[in-house]
Amino acid sequence: MSTNNSLYQHFLDYRTICTDTRSITKDCLFFALKGENFDANSFAEQALNLGAAYAIIDNPDYSIDQRTILVPDVLTALQQLAKHHRQQLNIPVIGLTGSNGKTTTKELINAVLSEKYKTFATKGNLNNHIGVPLSLLSLTAETEIAVIEMGANHQKEIEFLCELAQPTHGLITNVGMAHLEGFGGFEGVKKGKAELFAYLKKHDGTAFINRNNPYLLEMTATAALAKTVYYGTEADNTISGKLLKTDPFLELSWTDQQANYQIHTQLTGAYNFENILAAIVISHFFGLTADQINAGLSGYQPKNNRSQLSKTDKNMVICDFYNANPSSMIAALANIESLSAAHKVAIIGDMFELGNESASQHQLIIAAAEKTLVNTLIFIGKHFYEEKGQHRGHFFQSPAEAKEFLQKQSIADSLILLKGSRGMALEQLLPLL
User: Fold this and answer.
1) Is the pLDDT of residue 4 over 70?
2) In 3-state terms, what secondary structure has residue 48?
3) What is the pTM of this model?
């Protein structure tokens, strides 16, 4: 371990990691990470004064006393500490990535596995080069299975996160039109996500494969994976399922080739059917009974603004504004069209990180929305605004403009889809709905 064993000993003594002085807790380890607009080395003394046991810094100018630990690079030290800690734990680690559905699938897997095991799953969206180390450092001796979400917006990122998390099992939910700018197009997305399969192949790991997805089958063949477990809608899979109902919540049947079971969930959106099947096949693989699987799934309530159906004083709102890309946007539009409601409204925000594809993909979404039977279409953001032309619907350059409109044109007795990229912060519109 490059940061030496003393840092790991400090971690064993003081298990809480903080990277923000606003969340300092007594006897934590403060890692002074650098950001685009700040150098947390300058906050080391403040962190110690607030109760941190040690501050890990990489600028000697901010060294105070023995409570400051100087390392060559704080981020590298955090990552290497996490990798070293992971190596001490002989447990299954499920690495999870994909263009859409990562977080919901992670939450479902966690909900079901927790029926039998002491399970840890990535909190929120701590799935990048900082979040994954923080997740790994949250694992304890009591953890029996870990589910580590891995996000990426460029190639080699999943490869790097795998080197830290060292997954023994893995799942790619799907590959879609997300982060095209960083990946260099759709083929780049496939190549980037497939880095998880490459790691599993190299380390004799097991991959769970959705046989209904031709891209995943192609990537599986390319990786020449030796250990695979398949799920899908056909009977020749380890777990197969059938979607029975989507309005407003999903009901499905599934079979493990021995018996047939039925589940009522609290999830909306037909696109979540595959996420549910993924949770079933993984839980079945780890020895859960059908009763345990069904209990975990039926008891799961989405609370992360992904496919979350919320009743307000005036409307029913599909809160799906945590993130967006063309693939998930098309699925969300198909979902609201399939649901029963006298009046439907789609409030759609810009999609980010699409690079040269941005204009064409925003045009595609406008065209797709116009073809639906949704009564009112509202598009928000400069990318949509630039493509407004003579299209049906209301176009606003910013959420602030949309707010003004919604204050004057109150929407009531409607089913509303609220979806856009995280940077659009569409949650600010929810009080008006």
Assistant:
1) no
2) helix
3) 0.90
